[in-house]
Input
Amino acid sequence: MDPVRIGVVGVGGRGIGLLKTALAIPEIQVTAVADVAAERAAAAGQQAGVPGYTSHVKLMESGNVEAVLIGTPHPFHARIAVDAAARGLHVLSEKPLAVEVAEGDRMVQAAREAGVLLGIMFQRRLEPLHQKAHEIIASGVLGEIHEVEMISTGWYRLQSYYDSGAWRGTWKGEGGGILANQAPHDIDLLLWLGGPVAALMATLGTRVHQIEVEDTVHTVLEYGGHRAGYYKGTTSDPLGRRAVEICGENGRIAIREGKLLQCRYTTPISEHILHAPERSRFESTWEEIPVEKGGNTTAEVISNFAHAVREGAPLVATGEDGLRVLELTNAMHLSGLTHQRVELPLDRAQVGQMFEDLRAGRLGLA
Output
């Protein structure tokens, strides 16, 4: 197939990494770059051998691109994506989709009305470990799911990380802490593996870091029916870990220390509880499910995007997927800041007012 001519918008930090990755993908032809910092735009353009612009609009109107890859800080994602859709350009955005759920709504709507693709960089879906876990859950072998748990404390960050950019760790510049920056990858997996959330109750805090925003979140999740869940994330645990457990009527799976484990029950839980003789022991067996080592999943998402543009292949993750993650993180912020249970879908006006108050200093973490 003909390579997709793509412009990379934002080539500092994460963006320069995306540019380097895109340059090595046969299905992609990087034809322009843009960054508000002229020196970065020029340096990246020279590296890629393409024009470097200081305006994403000039890049889009240059005639050099048919799609854009957004690598800017997330407060700029919405405007860039909407501007691209208005010019008939496909969009692949770094996570998170945006800061506020209403911005995400506009991005999704703009892409839909223009008939262009909107994808999001949720590359962890492509890790073989998560692919296999998703396959097991989708097969129904676990039976009815009743519990979803995720511990995501492996995001340890020093104060120097937040000091590296004036926008980091602030409500105006970042729109949140771990929920806005690190957690979206995990929240996407939480939804992809565990299903949609109906309501939640969250607590937010900043343990040590000298920042305005949260570095720790604990959330009790409600899914409807008998399914419930829990999510914990932090950037302040030096011995952090990542673990997921999905428990069902007939068995469970667990992702621990980079391994996928499956537990099978000899008898379904409800049958054992209701009909087993007094003091009957519950029998189960654990086994490790072999999973191959993964490759460069970021490159795989970008390659998939090219095939979606050219051949109609399904995107790894769509703008709608990004919107669901954004809505859930916005709900955690709203619950943690108001100390109230929050139901989904969110009231967009309430979320907008919350962020307005946070940016103005009228609301903050206790």
